[in-house]
User: What shape does this take?
Amino acid sequence: MDDLVDFLGIDAFLTEEERASRDLVRRYGDEHLRPNVARWFDQEISRSEARDVLRGLAGIGLLGMQLSGYGCAGAGPVSYGLAMLELEAVDSGLRSMASVQGSLAMMAIHTFGSEEQKSRWLPGMASGEVIGCFGLTEPDVGSDPASMRTVARRSGSDWVLDGTKMWITNGGIADIAVVWARTDEGIRGFVVPADSAGLTINDVPRKMSMRVSITSELVFDGVRVPQDALLPGSRGLRSALACLNEARFGIVFGAMGAARDAFACARSYAMTRQQFGRAIAGFQLTQGKLADMLVELEKGILLAVHLGRLKERGLLQPAQVSFGKLNNTRVALDICRTARTILGASGVTLDYPVMRHASNLESVVTYEGTSEVHTLVLGQALTGLDAFR
Assistant: This one.
């Protein structure tokens, strides 16, 4: 039985195109990313290395792959999800970089941008020559983005932005930022070049998680942009949340990649680690852990594929994405923690991936909506009552 066990035969329900896309990303990850990932995590990936990673992912058609036109592949939801799973099987930070580029920054321009904006930005973003980030979260505003303080005011024919965005993946390597700000017309989105006067970008130092991606603070101090920086189709917070929902869908798959890698590592280790004269895989407690991890892993992948099939048919609802994000990030973290116990002290080193995955997942359960927020989304769906305020 292979470490990448497909115990329930889920492969049989994937199309040939979906399997080919998944296998391409898996091979690329094994050959080009996995050999470097422990070093990137240990030293924190540099800006130049992060840009190189995104250019490499662009070379296999991964950036904005679920979008159509403008150099994008137009892949189906399950193909996209499986690609995110394979990326996160290497490291959550890699999936996060690709997800922010494709599902947030590119998605916002593709969905809410003018034809001129799409033609100007999307081909370069698909090729990895133009890197984007997505500025929604603020230092004091995370789960309640409607309370954002960043503002954009008209000044003649221009817009002037003031405020701060925080925890912005790809911020330090971005060429453009899709920024959400309050205006007299409500919350709107803007495409802001990273070299704009008055925009300062500071990378977040000393992270203990997501060290294989760049995380930054964006400070806007009288940043002036022309009228055509406004995303004309953006109308209110719903526009930003629609992009987040796309990214969350990728996380539903991606978290299972981290879990699968940790499970495979733990199983392999248990088969070779000798204690009391035999492999620890032969002890009942270890087998119980492996069985429990396998059950949750396969259930999580089944859930992700099911949500992908709903998305294909245009039936996927935001609350269902919350269901998937809540469950899969939670069980993925549990799988990684259990895998660490099988590896014992070896599990806390970078010689093995399990602690790195667990550390990353501590962030994944928080971003794109915390577990608490997604719990309340489900609570609202169940009762019709809003418990947020």
